[in-house]
Each structure stands twice: as C-alpha cells, then as structure tokens.
Amino acid sequence: MTKNETPEICAVRKFLESYGASKSILRMMQYEKEYFSEESRENDCDALLVPYGDEALLKSKMYSVRRFINNLDDGKEKAFLLYHYIKGYTVEKCAEMMDIGRTSAFRLKKRALSAAAEKYAKKINNISTAA
C-alpha cells in the first residue's frame, strides 16, 4: 500500500496489476516450452499447445481484469485503466497519448483507481452476500 492509498484502492490496484503479471508469466512459460522442453523438440507434439492448469488459471485472471475494466463507465478513467494496466503503457505514455500533462495523468490515475475501487468493493460485497 502506497502513501495516502486506502485499502480499497490498494486491493483494486493489485487486482489490475495481476493482468500484467499473468501476461509476463504466460510469456515466460511459452518461452520455456519453445527453448527448454526436450519433448517439444524431439516429438514436435501439439499436446504442448493445450493450456495446462496454470495457463488456464492465468488466462482466467486476465479475462476477469479485462472484463472488470470493460464494465466500468465510459470515460477518460476507463481509457486510462485500459492503456495503463491492459496495454502496459507507463503513466507518462498514457498522458502523451491522451494529450494531457504528466501531473494531470497522475491525477487521472488516482480518480480512475478510486472509481474502480468503488465498483470493486460493490462486486466483492455482492459476492459475499450471495454466499
């Protein structure tokens, strides 16, 4: 949790960051299969293309993050979250693409995370009350 960040904002930020982490792990797993798997080199087996449990779980996490962002209200906040967390652009690059200043981009990030935290908290509360 960073300075001046509420637990709700911290939770949604970690949730959104899980997209990039999952993407990196999947990329490493693919690299490992291509370059270090003796079975794939010897047999040239298509069975390696089928997602294993870890891959399916990671892709499911990524889908959840993407779906969460897509269900947010349209606006600059949603666009920022898509480009920052899904596309992986830095805040500075997002600012350049959105034609706003760097400081404004950091303010936009804060607003976007706050809006997403509200939606995330409602989602969590709905799940816990349904159980």
Q: What summary fits the major beta sheet?
A: none
- Report mean pLDDT, rounded to a whole number: 86
Helix content: over 70%
Instruction: Work out the strand percent.
Output: under 5%
Q: Could you name the ranges where pLDDT drops below 50 across 5 or more consecutive residues?
A: none
Determine the N-to-C terminus distance. Answer: 28 Å
Shape: globular
* Whole-number total of structural domains: 1
Radius of gyration: 18 Å
Written as H for each helix and E for each strand, in order along the chain, the element string is: HHHHHH
Number of helices: 6
Strands, total number: 0
The assigned structural class equals mainly alpha
Summarize the structure.
The chain has 131 residues and is mainly α. The chain has one domain.
Provide an overview of this structure.
The mean pLDDT is 86. It contains 6 helices and no strands. By secondary structure, the protein is mostly helical. The protein starts with 6 loop residues before the first helix and ends with a helix. The chain has one domain (7-130).
Task: Draw up the topology in text.
Blueprint: H1 7-36, H2 38-43, H3 53-70, H4 76-86, H5 91-97, H6 102-130
Helix pairs in contact: 1-3, 1-6, 3-4, 4-6, 5-6
